[in-house]
Automatic annotation (TrEMBL), chain A:
Species whose genome carries this gene: Fulvimarina pelagi HTCC2506
Subcellular location: Cell membrane
Keyword Ligase listed: no
Membrane topology, as annotated: Multi-pass membrane protein
Pfam family, one: BPD_transp_2
Transmembrane segments: 12-38, 50-79, 100-120, 147-168, 189-212
Family: Belongs to the binding-protein-dependent transport system permease family. LivHM subfamily.
A GO biological process held by the record: amino acid transport
Matching PANTHER family: AMINO ACID ABC TRANSPORTER PERMEASE PROTEIN (PTHR11795:SF445), BRANCHED-CHAIN AMINO ACID TRANSPORT SYSTEM PERMEASE PROTEIN LIVH (PTHR11795)
Main localization category: membrane
Record's protein name: Putative branched-chain amino acid transport permease
TrEMBL record, chain B:
Its membrane topology: Multi-pass membrane protein
Organism whose genome encodes this protein: Fulvimarina pelagi HTCC2506
Coiled-coil segments on the chain, per record: none
PANTHER family for this protein: HIGH-AFFINITY BRANCHED-CHAIN AMINO ACID TRANSPORT PROTEIN BRAE (PTHR30482:SF10), HIGH-AFFINITY BRANCHED-CHAIN AMINO ACID TRANSPORT SYSTEM PERMEASE (PTHR30482)
Localization: Cell membrane
Name of the protein this chain belongs to: High-affinity branched-chain amino acid ABC transporter, permease protein
Amino acid sequence: MSLLAISEQAINGLIIGSFYALTALGLAVIFGVLRIVNFAHGELYMLGGYAYYLAIASLGIPPLAAILIAVAALFVIGAAIEGLLIRPIHTGKIDRPDEYAIMITFALSVFLLNLANSVFGPWPQRPEPLMRGRVEIGELIISGDRLAAASAAIVMIAIVVFALRYTWAGKAVRAVSQDRQAAEIYGISVQRAGLIAFGTGAALAGLAGALIGPVFNVVPIMGVVPVIKAYIIVVLGGLGSIPGAIIGAIILGQVESFATILIPDPSRALAYKDAYGLIVLVAVLLLRPQGLFGTKDRRA
Amino acid sequence: MSQAALRSIIGAALLVAFVLLPFAGLSDYWTYTVTIGFYYALLAASWSLLVGYVGRISFAQAAMSGLGGYASALGVLEFGLPIGLGLVFAALIAGLVGYVLGWLTLRLHGAYLGLTTIAFGEILRISVTAEHWLTEGSLGLQVPPLIPGGSRLEYYYIFLAITVGCLAAMGLLLRSRIGLFFQSIREDEDGAASLGVAVTTWKCVAFAISSAFAGLAGGLYAHFVQLIAPSMMSLQEMGVILAMAVIGGFHNILYAALGGMLLQVLLEALREVEQWRLVVFGLVTILVLRFAPNGLFGMLSNIFVRRRNSDG
């Protein structure tokens, strides 16, 4: 394989990996603070795509502003979901909190997916991309919409990582994910941290959906496959681990990008493409449930 | 009258109602719909056996049902099994795969278990789709009928009989010591183990039994509709099963089964509102989980018992 082909695949992998990282980062932030896996994450991603599409198509807002609107809208939706459905888990109002958390988010995904199907229709929409044309670096050609979307994703990831590290709210979120009770004793509002975490997680998923929308179309089922990738990534990196989510996304992006050109018998390889990651997920959970970077629970 | 007696009277009344239903002027179309309802009732009950009694969540139930469907169909088509044996084969294969899944996931709980079972179910679905030399992939597999040239009514009574038989078997199992073992695992796994319950064994067995019933349901369904596709193993289908069990009440196999029947009938009755049906079911599922965790039938029975107590 030529150097050009290798770098092309590597860049493709990085671009895909940056979208994966956005979605997975949201899951990780939510798990860290609230100790739940958000099984409706793919539908929040899908809503981000529609928010972006609607902002452009019906309000006539320019793409860059539409991205910000999608992020803000999903933050509000996420915060509302947390306040209405997730908060009762931590206030002792639910008999079997673990079971409830899994089922309520799964039911939420059924609800949101079919709601989008009913309201927007099952057909795909293609919103205007952030940037048109293509970029040439030497012999490498990258389409502009993908490059712009990946850059936006990387900027957003950097902002979130920075905010978690240095801002007061970010520190509160990290404190709660390290030790809920100790954080509360030190005067941190765990409820507000939960609200911020779920809102941020939803906003990150929404951003990913909004960025992907112009590349792969906006359609109600668009979140179903990416969210499974995000599960694989957060499990690989360790549930709740922020660096784990980013590194896991880079690994999965590269693996998928190279697997498609390295495996012989292309039709079979393509049919099983989505299964490889799932096998990784099962293997990691069975052999090392804490993943690459997660903290070890006594009971996974 | 004791509560137990009341319960058996309600159970018997339901049974009689379903036996007499076809004579109440049920059209062919509705006989068909209610027959499919028995499939969902059995599937939802098998899921509630695992989730409601043992406290082990699984999102692989739809995949297990599909596995049973394909196992029975291929057993009949490839090995020339009679259809009755094909159904047994379906239950055995699904039970065996369920046992393995239970064994693999012994150490996992909560969200980790949910993720593993999602991945497991999806791997099964992808494999069935990919191996089209055997399964015809997403085109769907033609399956020979359960009763060649059988009428809708014959299917109805076979499905009714098998569903009632399976529910009775599940009920007996749950009332036995094994049922107590299951519930002790749900309440406190370490505590149960310290009192001598073989937690490891029963967790695997619970997965196996629940999957075997799902496989049997899938096999029956395959030989009734005579065309199966991998979409019956999808997570969307799993969402429907979860909604059925939760809305009916997943802490009780009978309530879950009634939930399956209720939702299937409503799905058909409300055909003109199309996708909105599932929107409403999703919303009702969320509301039930949040405000009536025992499900609609659990809530009804609680209200009924309370009223009787206040009267007496």
